[in-house]
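Q: what does this look like with iron/sulfur cluster bound?
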Amino acid sequence: MEKEERQAKKAAEIEQSGKISMNRRQFMKMGAAATASGALMSVTGHAAPSKNLATKTASPSVSLGTKDNPLRITDKCKRMPQKNTIFSRQLWDFEFVQKVESSVDRTSLDELRKNKGWTGLDEALDEAAWAVDHKFASGSEGGQPHSMAYAWDEHVRRQKVTFKDAADASKKIKKAARYLGASLVGITDYNPLWTYSELIKEKFEGESGQEGPPKYEIFIPEFPFVPKSVVVMAVEMDYRTIALSPSSLEGAATGLGYSHMCEVGYSVATFIRALGYRAFANGNDVSLSVPYAIAAGLGELGRHGMLITREYGPRVRLVKVFTELELVPDPPKAFGVWEFCKNCKRCADACPSKAISDGEPTLEGNTISNNPGALKWYIDPEKCIQFWRENGSDCANCITACPYNKLATWPHRLSTSVAALPVAPLHSFLAQLDGQVGFGNIDNKKGNVSFWDED
Ligand code: SF4
Ligand code: SF4
């Protein structure tokens, strides 16, 4: 039986029985919201409330993280095995799965759905928004490596297009990336530190794979070529519907982001292969996205563990293309996010599971899904995923609440410039003002309903 048929059959069984089991697809779909794009898998993992982490706070060994280089990496930062990411743990960490599953209460879930606008209409839009990802990159949101649109071994044209130099090639590739749908594009050198040390892939082996624990294989990533450059692209997610978090409409914004990732990543990789150079796209599989995006100058890391871009704040999804082509890296760009986050905790306040630290940056988190060694605010991905299960849908409260999450207009650009001034009281004032004038307010019950009546 084909994989999709098996998944559909399993979903039907679950629906009929009324039992919520930890189906990998469901688990990953929630994760995918990773709005916390996100949130859960991005950078070096998320981490925990930091009050009890004081002893782990900053050490003099922080080697990077200057005003101009927002990657604050120490020599303690090592490659992370993919099996430790929150989604992959479903394949083997049954104690954790059991703990999350036991938190789900079907009665309160049904009640919640009645009250908050998860109508059939909303769910249909959610499903449609995910459709391209599910059809052409099924499993990628949860980290299934080397598959479908994100496969490593697609055809490469024999005859090479040549360029004047690496700068010329970089310019053409960025132009093509924007044409093919990237909202933002940057280039950085390939860095093995951000590739998972081992990959984990679910195996589908016929009917016997239906019962019992999932089957998986673990393998060392050995690409068909040595990547030299990484084209990092951000795709904007819809402002209007992401603000309806948590709901199916917010899930639609996230799903559409994943579908666009797949489309843009595959298209740009195809463009480079059609130029005669080896390349493949990857999303949540294979490597971490946020460090690459920071290195490529797309933005900075926020307290909520996501990339904050100048243009859209954290309201983006990230896709990378690894290529053997030699390109010119862009410099990382800081614009005051680190200082601003120290004085703004709107995401931590808006997080229903208290997964976001309201304390100081640290060098490690409290779960195996955190990758230690970067100085940052670690979130707690276990708490986050638990909320998604309890909530029965995605969550993007941390994106919605972030003052950098705005439409890319001149007032937003101006306020981002003002926020870059290193004046702590100003940051607290701006964060409060943002909420008072009506931005970033979560729990918008009416918005779910009115969405369908708007032109
Ligand atoms: S607000 Fe909290 S629970 Fe919601 S996605 Fe962000 S970290 Fe997870
Ligand atoms: S909400 Fe505030 S503290 Fe959180 S990431 Fe955004 S700017 Fe930083």
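Residues 3-453 form one domain. The two ends are 43 Å apart (CA to CA).
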